[in-house]
Amino acid sequence: NKYFGQRVNDGFKDKVEFVYTGLQDCSIVIRNVTEQDERCYRCLFNTYPEGAFIGRTCLQVYVFVDPSQSCLQVYELHEPVVDVRESNSTEEWVVSCSATGRPAPTVTLSVSQQDLNFSQYNTVSVSNTNATFTVTTTAVLSGSCKHSTQVGCAARVLSAPHREVMVTIREVQQTHDDDDDDDDDDDLFHTFTDW
């Protein structure tokens, strides 16, 4: 009110500042936000003779983990993990990519060879106990790998820089002997890049 003016509780005096203090137009700024500031905040107007008007808003804090930067940003995104395996069909691969972040990341698959294409997309999002989300996108890659083919997985969280992982699939040898139990992983080269 006009007699007492604006007041910030002691625990928030160094962090909270009023920008506008009108009853119909009130704004505050919270400075130097950390994950510990994630909570709901209440703004109270004591008026006479009507009594108290109370407003409530909740703040969500997102942290972007980037070791090359010393400043704290408001997102979290970890490097995607790609898994490529041959399906039972001769010219199909099952490609799966998982990325963990906060908020839930968008996961996108890509392939370098033009005559290959993805189908049967399936995306699952799992909420983790630390408030992050793990999103897994799986698709079937169809076509003949005539030479080394790169499969990519890009993960994005809001406007944070995206992270991408590339996996190279070598040409599949069609002369496999039925008695040969070589590990199919010999046909994959993994290269991880952060863009």
Automatic annotation (TrEMBL):
GO biological process, alphabetically ordered:
heterotypic cell-cell adhesion; negative regulation of neuroinflammatory response
Listed GO cellular component terms? Answer: axon; cell surface; membrane; neuronal cell body
Its subcellular locations are:
Membrane
What range does the record give for the signal peptide? Answer: none
Q: Does the keyword Disulfide bond apply?
A: yes
- Show the stretches that span the lipid bilayer: none
GO molecular function term, any single one: cell-cell adhesion mediator activity
The alphabetized UniProt keywords are: Disulfide bond, Glycoprotein, Immunoglobulin domain, Membrane, Signal, Transmembrane, Transmembrane helix
How does this chain sit within the bilayer?
Single-pass membrane protein
Designated name of the protein? Immunoglobulin V-set domain-containing protein
Native organism? Oreochromis aureus
